[in-house]
Design a protein that fits this description.
single chain; alpha/beta; Alpha-Beta Plaits; DHBP synthase; Nucleotidyltransferase, domain 5; twelve-stranded mixed beta sheet; seven-stranded mixed beta sheet; 21 helices; 32 strands; 21% strand; binds zinc ion; binds fe (iii) ion
Length: 762
């Protein structure tokens, strides 16, 4: 045994359910290594015995050639007492108490499985539950860890002899593929009409029938990976409008699905980075610029960016195989802004009034998730919604600390648990405005806690006294947890500090909808100097009244009048001065239910109204999106522009909202077009923001700057500010894996809570 060593390897990361053990097995055989490999609740554990050089080569190969869906976070190697292994074996999973093992995310169908799906000679020809170790459902079917078949919703399906052979053969692509199945042993598909009558149970026939129904203008509810999707013909005005009507969704854009990248490229501008993301195994929706009018203009009314994704589930491929010319709307199966429906029973109840037919299957979705949404700007990807394909991959926390539960916020809601050096974030839950969304949030929170056995002693939440997520934190306080309330925009900036592992203080620009401020007002255009534990507010836009409070989000004309009234009193130009407007003026003058805000989101809404772009809207940020569109049509430089918004005061500086309004009024009255004025508005904000940042840099000697807040989903504003900051040589830090919008709050709350806890210990 001379020259032979025995070592133990502990591998953490995404190493379960991704073919890691067979990969280790094959690698060991190739390198002449004896020993064992097994899954446990911490990841993968290897005992390896062999000559020193061979062991080194073995470990190097594990690092270099890991399977496509895996992600190694760490490999720790320990020397062990000499052991006598004969050959190399895959051992049964061990159950340990500590639960930091990772559940892999759902992944798009791989090329090999796709080829088999479409091959008439293959035994899985046309079988919509085909999967292998490199692809398929994971997180969506998991009930518990470790990730084994009997802990998933595949548990009721006993493997047939052929599938069992694949499952048991370390050299097979389906070795230990937990959802492995075939037509004779696995789940199956059904097509039902709106009354629940089964029309077909033959998958290939269902694909043909579905394609034909879509052509006839019908709406189908298709049970997908993380829930039901609603599909209809994206080229038919009639079908799209019917879907809008039935879904109660007049404006919000719908996402599309095309059969392949070439098809998508025929009407959308797709750059390199976008193409790579569209084809990635996460298969998100990408927001892409329309270059030809191939789809109904009602898909994304008035907007030049359209969301599109490529097929990721086998049945979706079968659908486009049946009719390659299809262009589908594929939107989350829900009513209005309710959470996505993912249980069959609820589907027939809730979607029965929307869908003309249902495509379902007899396997439960254990964990819902919406399709993820990203966009690319200045060559970089930005997340709008982090869900299917990305969740529950842990976010790496740069500094350790105690376990913390962060409740997030009430809009674009998502919570997170932190343990050690990682945070597990929930999928996108949506806006917590309905009882069903609240219920889903609670269920999900408990589900995560029990699966991962989280036992946090602190709960971080937003400062807003009226948030549902704040009430959740209060309930946990009654159970003995300590509550740490985090100011909304501090959390925004801290989320990027955490993700980018920034040390010390940074300048933070939070351009946002509304967030509760430490003065009880509604903040949302904030220049902070912040680190994890604390922040100072250094500048913001001056306050203006929000008539009717946050309900003015829908009646944006009221915000327009409020902005004009603040500068011109009741004698304002541009907008109507009728009885309804007079009532708004009276509310403002008497300060009746007019909370003050400086939110840039509301400023965008009000300016859209002032310029006559929007009056009343059906969704938050709708008016702001239309204002951005107008600005994109307007031209750079047509209005001379070095104009910046006057700033007054010191601690904090006040950026004059009134002067900005006055400037826009004078542009319009002197004959500038709505589009050019909209552009000038964006440019003035960007130029002013860069100027304010420069002054803070001057006094604080800080060059690092962080951008966060939903207003940066305005691509023109983002572009102008990034370009301006680059020109002035700031170190710009942007979110990468988390959104600009409130979906980032939970991570920021964790960063702040741990920052405060660490500070106290010192
Ligand atoms: Zn596969
Ligand atoms: Zn089978
Ligand atoms: Fe926010």
């Amino acid at each position: 045994m001379s020259g032979r060593d025995t070592i133990g390897l502990r591998i953490t990361g995404i190493v379960q359910g991704v073919g890691f053990r067979p990969f280790v097995y094959r690698t060991a055989i190739e390198h002449g290594i004896n020993g064992t490999v097994q899954n446990d609740t911490l990841g993968v554990l290897v005992h390896a015995c062999g000559e020193k050089e061979r062991l080194e080569a073995f470990v190097a190969a594990i690092r270099a050639d890991a399977p496509p869906l895996s992600r190694i976070d760490s490999i720790t190697i320990e020397k062990e007492p000499p052991a006598d292994f004969t050959g190399f074996h895959i051992k049964k999973s061990a159950r340990l108490d500590e639960r930091s093992a990772i559940i892999p995310p759902d992944s798009a169908l791989c090329a090999e499985c796709l080829a088999e799906l479409l091959d008439p000679a293959d035994r899985r020809y046309g079988y919509p539950f085909i999967t292998c170790t490199n692809c398929g459902p994971r997180f969506s079917i998991v009930r518990d860890i470790p990730y084994d078949r009997n802990n998933t919703s595949m548990e009721p399906f006993a493997l047939c002899p052929a599938c069992a052979r694949e499952y048991g053969d370390p050299l097979d692509r389906r070795f230990h593929t937990q959802p492995n199945a075939c037509p004779s042993c696995g789940p199956h598909l059904e097509l039902r009409d709106a009354h629940g009558t089964v029309l077909s149970a033959d998958a290939r026939e269902i694909a043909r029938m579905t394609a034909a129904f879509v052509r006839e203008g019908r709406i189908l509810a298709i049970k997908s990976v993380g829930g039901f999707l609603l599909a209809c013909d994206a080229r038919s005005d009639e079908a799209v409008l019917r879907l809008r009507l039935r879904k109660g969704r007049p404006f919000k854009p719908f996402a599309l699905m095309a059969g392949g990248i070439e098809r998508a490229e025929s009407f959308l501008e797709i750059g390199e980075a976008e193409r790579a993301l569209l084809l990635s195994h996460e298969r998100p929706i990408l927001l892409l610029k329309e270059k030809a009018g191939l789809v109904s203009r009602h898909v994304a009314p008035g907007l030049s960016y359209i969301g599109l994704m490529l097929p990721y589930a086998p049945f979706q491929y079968m659908l486009f195989d049946a009719d390659p010319d299809l262009l589908l709307i594929m939107t989350s199966g829900n009513v209005a802004d309710e959470p996505i429906v993912y249980r069959d029973r609820e589907a027939f109840e809730d979607l029965g009034k929307i869908a003309d037919g249902f495509i379902t299957y007899n396997r439960e979705i254990e964990q819902f998730s919406d399709d993820s949404v990203l966009f690319v700007e200045r060559g970089r990807p930005f997340v709008v919604r982090r869900s299917r394909g990305y969740v529950p991959v842990p976010l790496v926390l740069q500094a350790g600390g105690p376990e913390v539960f962060a409740t997030g916020g009430d809009l674009k809601s998502s919570f997170a648990y932190a343990r050690g050096a990682s945070a597990i974030m929930s999928p996108f839950i949506g806006d917590l405005e309905s009882p069903s969304a609240n219920e889903l949030y609670r269920t999900e929170m408990d589900r995560f806690r029990s699966i991962y056995r989280f036992e946090p002693r602190s709960v971080a939440c937003d400062l807003h006294p009226g948030y549902f997520t704040t009430a959740i934190a209060e309930e946990l306080v009654e159970k003995g947890l300590r509550r740490i309330a985090v100011q909304h925009h501090h959390a925004h900036i801290a989320s990027v500090i955490e993700e980018r592992n920034l040390a010390g203080r940074v300048i933070g620009i939070a351009f946002d909808g509304t967030g509760y401020g430490t003065d009880g007002r509604l903040w949302g255009a904030e220049f902070l100097v912040a680190d994890r534990a604390s922040f100072e507010r250094r500048a913001h836009f001056s306050y203006f009244p929000l008539p009717g409070g946050e309900s003015a989000i829908r009646d944006v004309w009221k915000i327009g009048i409020a902005l004009l009234h603040a500068r011109y009193s009741a004698d304002y130009p541009l907008m109507r001065r009728d009885a309804a407007a007079a009532m708004v003026c009276e509310m403002i003058e008497k300060r009746l239910y007019c909370p003050e805000t400086c939110s840039i989101g509301r400023l965008f809404d009000g300016v859209a109204a002032m310029l006559g772009i929007a009056e009343s809207v059906s969704a938050e940020a709708e008016a702001a999106m239309l204002l951005e569109e107008a600005a994109l049509r307007g031209a750079e430089g047509r209005i001379d522009d070095a104009w910046t918004i006057p700033v007054a005061g010191m601690g904090p500086e006040l950026i004059s909202t009134e002067s900005l309004v006055e400037r826009l009024v004078s542009l319009r009255l002197s004959g500038a077009s709505v589009e050019d004025s909209a552009y000038a508005f964006h440019a003035a904000i960007a130029r002013t923001a860069v100027g304010v940042a420069e002054r803070i840099r001057e006094t604080e000697k800080l060059n690092g700057i962080v951008l966060s807040g939903g207003a940066f989903q305005n691509r023109l504003l983002l572009r102008l500010i990034i370009d301006g900051l680059r020109e002035k040589r700031f170190d710009i830090h942007l979110p990468g894996k988390i959104p600009f919008n409130d979906g980032c709050l939970a991570l920021g709350q964790i960063a702040v809570a741990r920052g405060i806890l660490r500070h106290e210990q010192r």
